[in-house]
């Protein structure tokens, strides 16, 4: 079966290969979004303050997770390229070392986030009625960071070798469990006390622990493209150094995106509880709507990585172009549907608050105008990362957040009559502008000159090479 997948990915029909990878990933991401959507559904029954508490907490948690995720991205990139080059021994070694680094990093970051949670909320300036719920949700979420990291790494490694069904089955089991635990812990039942917003985080913590445990069992049994043994977890300091140089730009990229979400939450919070609640609902919808493009971009990453590892650069470029076209078309169609049903979508989550329904619907209608641009960015950034050019993806994230998103949102909301609507309009402006920048940069072709599997020493130089090739030095 592994040989059949490898033949399809390297020599078979590109649309078929994209579909074979993307379909399970998209379904898995839909199920994973069930964590957030289930939380949003039940927390919405507690009122606008509870929704705002979750909305404020999530970007901070994502920021801490993103700081350590560059190492996972480095491992996934190397796994895909070594798989394409037919070097199974390196696949196993990279997987074990990356899992070790991710676990240690997650313990450090989770503990730091737990201690600094009150400072984060003070920095955001949340309203008094939101603070208690946000602090409880945030601290429980930080406890679960280690399990999030481990399962994220497991998924990335499985995608790198082209195995997407096993993670899908694990997510299915844990989402079903989360759906049952959420109302139980939020509202209580019998001897189980009602924990409110903290209960939603607790339910997710339990299911994430289960998912991480199952993922480790799969890797240690070694039946699905990666075979780990305990001896492979002995620290390889040379590889750790290489992974740091490769993964650091990825950490900066993801941290930039997460920090941007946190700053946008801060800006929304300055307009009051109604605006931050509408922003939270709209952000959840945005995550759900972009799932098809995320799944497609992940499949593009796997295929581009394996084909670059096999020396098929033209095929890698063709894969990226088809991914961009498919994703842009799909999200444009989805955006049109969301535009006409925006109020009904928000009402599903907050049925008894007409003000949040009105403002959240307004946010979604404005965002939906340019969702196709998101798919363009995601697919091209995935191709950059898969080729080892993490710096390119990092620069795109910096441009998106700090040259477009936040400046536009701040100017329009604070210095025009749009008010809070100025925040909403920053989304389509950013999506269109960054999509155009991405296409132009990809067309230059500098990303083709990096191949990590030709010479392991090149991993140490990839950051400098990417900067030099693209004219940043």
UniProtKB/TrEMBL annotation:
Membrane-topology annotation of the record: Multi-pass membrane protein
CDD domains: MATE_like_12
Localization: Cell inner membrane
Database matches in InterPro entries: MATE_fam (IPR002528), MdtK-like (IPR048279), Membrane_Transporter-Flippase (IPR052031)
Alphabetic keyword roster: Cell membrane, Membrane, Transmembrane, Transmembrane helix, Transport
Transmembrane segments: 46-78, 99-124, 136-154, 166-189, 201-220, 259-279, 285-304, 324-350, 362-384, 391-411, 423-443
Protein name: MATE family efflux transporter
Organism of provenance: Gilvimarinus japonicus
Biological classification of the source: Bacteria, Pseudomonadati, Pseudomonadota, Gammaproteobacteria, Cellvibrionales
